[in-house]
């Protein structure tokens, strides 16, 4: 495989999401939201709103170049589009430790924000505690479903989920086709049902196109430790892996750093980014990057849209909103500089297969084993 392969195609990520099906009602599409378009008359009327919204970050922080940053970008776009002032109309609260989650969320509720966001599944317990003690509060969480003691969704929490396994399958196809050693790796943050979706979707995509490939999996048990990320990547690359997919938040910085160091020493290794197009995170010289591709997940769009719904009096409390490939809410990054034409063509074919129901992408370990047995 050579760096700087010609771009044979571009798989663009749509700037629109439509709502998935909530368990509490019928599926309803959400209207498109503006990107660079001029503000229309209806949006202009909203500039005088006194709506307020706050967001509590996970420990990765607002500049994690991953889902926290994406969520803040969505909230910022929402605030700017509707004339809210940063700091009063919309703002974020940084968490440096898991123990910060509940007091940070509670403080937003005490300030009477109209909507309080918790970013990340690790905030589930904190959101639950605050929601149950403040029934009039409106809260939303990314990457988790908050339920009561009877396992029913709580009425004053909107639950935003994604089909990460579908997007991960696509980057698995890329890895399976472009590995030269037939060995690839997956680095997860904290092992959980959520991150297992990334892992199993990725492994399924690899095996779909390269059944003989060996896949090494290791969890850092942290989303905020680049040193551990680098150590894991060092081991995987040393054992022959030439492509590593990370779903580890800021821990993934270490994977990029290790790959960059090795490329500068003449090795051919790659990283697959997560949540956002992480091409820039892999740059080591000029515009050359160790990022093969990235699995993008439009947290920004979901945050924008749910905030807009809430401002318009349509808070989706108690609903589970799941965004997937059919919504163009997950997929492969628009930057394709290092992708082969074969991989791009194969990915397009697999997108169609998933959308048409010909492939049921596995989420769990058991589903993955069944998938492999069916190949």
Outline the structure in words:
α2 (67-81) runs parallel beside α9 and α5 runs parallel beside α6 (193-209). The radius of gyration is 20 Å and the shape is globular. The strands form 3 sheets. A 6-stranded parallel sheet has the order 2-1-3-4-5-13, sandwiched between helices. A 6-stranded mixed sheet has the order 7-6-8-9-12-14, with helices on both faces. The chain has a two-stranded antiparallel ribbon with strand order 10-11. By secondary structure, it is α/β, with parallel strands linked by helices. Helix content is 36%, strand content 17%. It contains 11 helices and 14 strands. The two termini are 26 Å apart. It has helices spanning 41-45, 67-81, 101-110, 124-133, 164-178, 193-209, 226-238, 252-264, 299-311, 341-355, 365-374; strands at 53-56, 90-93, 115-119, 139-142, 157-162, 183-188, 214-219, 243-247, 270-275, 283-285, 288-289, 291-297, 320-323, 330-332. The model is unreliable at 1-47 (pLDDT under 50).
